[in-house]
Amino acid sequence: MGSTQDESLSTFKILVATDNHLGVWEKNPERGNDSFETFEEVLAIAVEQDVDFILLEGDLFHENKPSRQCVLRCMELLKKCTHGDKSVQFDFLSDAAENFKHIKNPVVNYMDPNLNIGVPIFSIHGNHDDPSGLGQHCALELLSSSGLINYFGKTSDLKDINIMPLLLEKGETKFAIFGLSSIKDERLFRLFKEGKVKMLRPKEYEDKWFNLMVLHQNHNKQCGMINHIPESFLDNFLDLVVWDHEHECILQAQVPHESAPDSFHVIQPGSSVATSLCAGKAVPKQVALLEVFKRKFSITPVDLKTVRPFVFAMVSLSDHDLDDATSIMENSPVENFVEEKVRDMIKESETQITGHSKQPKKPLIRLRVEFSNEAQMFNVVRFGHKFAEVVANPEDMILFKKEKKEVKKDELGIDNDAMDAAFNDMEVEETRVEDLVRQYFAGIENQVQNLSLLSERGLCGER
Amino acid sequence: MGSTQDESLSTFKILVATDNHLGVWEKNPERGNDSFETFEEVLAIAVEQDVDFILLEGDLFHENKPSRQCVLRCMELLKKCTHGDKSVQFDFLSDAAENFKHIKNPVVNYMDPNLNIGVPIFSIHGNHDDPSGLGQHCALELLSSSGLINYFGKTSDLKDINIMPLLLEKGETKFAIFGLSSIKDERLFRLFKEGKVKMLRPKEYEDKWFNLMVLHQNHNKQCGMINHIPESFLDNFLDLVVWDHEHECILQAQVPHESAPDSFHVIQPGSSVATSLCAGKAVPKQVALLEVFKRKFSITPVDLKTVRPFVFAMVSLSDHDLDDATSIMENSPVENFVEEKVRDMIKESETQITGHSKQPKKPLIRLRVEFSNEAQMFNVVRFGHKFAEVVANPEDMILFKKEKKEVKKDELGIDNDAMDAAFNDMEVEETRVEDLVRQYFAGIENQVQNLSLLSERGLCGER
């Protein structure tokens, strides 16, 4: 893409990043800088790649009320990156008073005659930095009020959502960005079901626009039917959806991987920092370079090099023949085994060293140890002392979990077909647990089937 | 001043305001806007008067951690006033890296090539908005980081204070501003006593500079010897001192009214909003227009017209012949008397109506009622209901105070001369209550005088 001169002049080049979670672990002397270092790297990539703009997709801040220091550090980084003489090469065609109507002085920052903006940033809010408190403002507004970012996609009417896209134009490319800042999944699910979410497409040159949707919601079914947004809810006219909130980085341009019509692609850049120590956060962190020429696009993942090495592993003690015996004088065989495993993981973390001068070297280590017998457990904090100098999280490297006895699903005696029918028929906006139970019994009709105790998972519909 | 063409080109015109206390009473539906309306007026006066810059002297925010809405409203007002094409007519000669060394990117905002600043603001912090929390940042830094104000006078070393002045030049006038942001009075008192507060004067053209000092400390003795800064502590080379923190507006240019050498003038602009309902806050609110040509200056007070009317009065029931009798059916004679008094005060408040469209009309009323007999009290909240539509603070108009029986000071039997001697001799940095008591007894030596119980006031030295 962008091979000919004309194409290049009409190609939007955008850095897409999300879930930077500035301020996470801020008070931890070892890890307090991590989120800032990587955010600085993200911004530096944007400058280096000479992008037209940066698209941030929520959870810029980890805390709803970030510390003053956190906001200040963020402002300083943004000012350094966004201010400058580089001239912005695209036009802003939509009505800023509509796109930014939640702001007193609604103007796109690079067209503010009193600011010299070289790299504009557009951002929606996430679930961590959503509006709260007096006047329902969010932390991003501290940035947009001073012209550091363009904050869009804030919904003022939570009963009827009209998404006004940002309309941008660069040469021959017309680019519409439909932003929807984070809303409680259940509420948004209902609004979609009720047809209360409308995307306002420009009438003119309707087929010429590259339509991007940006949202910060659960993508996958978590627990339950209604606390995520199925791809099938989204309009078919979209070309690409950037789905955020889930922290795993999935950046290969891909066709929808669920039941939606084969109409748009979905990418999920994932977080730039490990906010918690689980398997999904141990995949390499990347940002996306999105290039758009007319209605074609390409995605180039860019590895982040300042991210702290993180190795996650699981081990089940019952798979290993270990003596439970402990004595006060020496470590138990289990502890020795775990120690060896941790040392292997530390060694493995070295493969994640990138050579970037600002990458913290001490790795995050998380070993999930499944045990069947409490006698196998040991004091993990004391255990951590041995690694205080080489690991970033010595105190919580080891997570003991009791092995679960597997229960075969059909032993529960739930009529899954009746459950499915109940869920599929329901008018979501009216669903109450009572109705669900009634429908379930209506479904099984006169079958000779006993009432089983429904677990929470059963009620939520995940089978 | 400024009568000839040359003088005019060399005359600094500065709006001086302080203690705006943005966000005070923010959650009160009637009074929540007051601080913002008046701050907007202050900024508008600056624009209308075409000043060179605005000097704010602390307590811009009422809360150390102002609400997000409060910061946002402040940012919006500042942006509207300070951004613009007006060209700044004075040069900044001092080293911004020194004046603003607490900021990541220390530059005076109107010389930042990426900002278009027409009306620069310089501000110190007060005791309400002083640094706190992680990294010891103050709320003003949210404004200075985004280039909305120039925050100066922050002291990083609380053991040794070197005040680097802002050095400004306009035509023939050289203007040095020594800013000292709020520090605990007791600590600053000690530092002055120890000679640890130094003002770094420019050597060049030493006698040509107009030297202004800005500080936000207790000016008058409150309770005690050491929790205010005596004028005698300040250097004689100063021409003018702007003293803030105390809310009463005293704007006539005046000679020092205490023991300081007859060397500098002191003004005290006072707060722009009534933060509490006492006599000192019921004087008219003003800001100062300060004009400086070479080493001459003039002060022009400017009335603020959006300030809510406020009438304060005191009444002693024992001065009036009122029957204490109450009945359930009708108001007591005292209540009727107080009601009449309040109605007079409301009438009096009308004289404070300025005609400004944004001035709130419902007055603040505070009547302090001194009683000698509890039976004279009545329910002030129920009383307030009658005035709910005409008064801004119906629930706390009336403050009952028990009349004090006057005790003649010398009945206490304290040897005031010995107390004075003890205070004057003491090395302040070493003072402990034990020493003070010892010194007191040393002072009275062999006099036949009994030990009296010292009240707190006695201990603090206020007699």
TrEMBL record, chains A, B:
Presence of keyword NAD: no
Predominant place of localization: nucleus
InterPro entries per record: Calcineurin-like_PHP, Metallo-depent_PP-like, Mre11, Mre11_capping_dom, Mre11_DNA-bd, Mre11_N
Entry keyword NAD: no
Keywords: Chromosome, DNA damage, DNA repair, Endonuclease, Exonuclease, Hydrolase, Manganese, Meiosis, Metal-binding, Nuclease, Nucleus
Cofactor: Mn(2+)
Domain Mre11 DNA-binding: 297-459
SUPFAM superfamilies assigned: Metallo-dependent phosphatases
Molecular-function GO terms, alphabetical: 3'-5'-DNA exonuclease activity; manganese ion binding; single-stranded DNA endodeoxyribonuclease activity
Locations listed in the record: Chromosome; Nucleus
A biological process term (GO) from this entry: mitochondrial double-strand break repair via homologous recombination
GO cellular component term, pick one: Mre11 complex
Family in the record: Belongs to the MRE11/RAD32 family.
Protein name: Mre11 DNA-binding domain-containing protein
Organism field: Meganyctiphanes norvegica
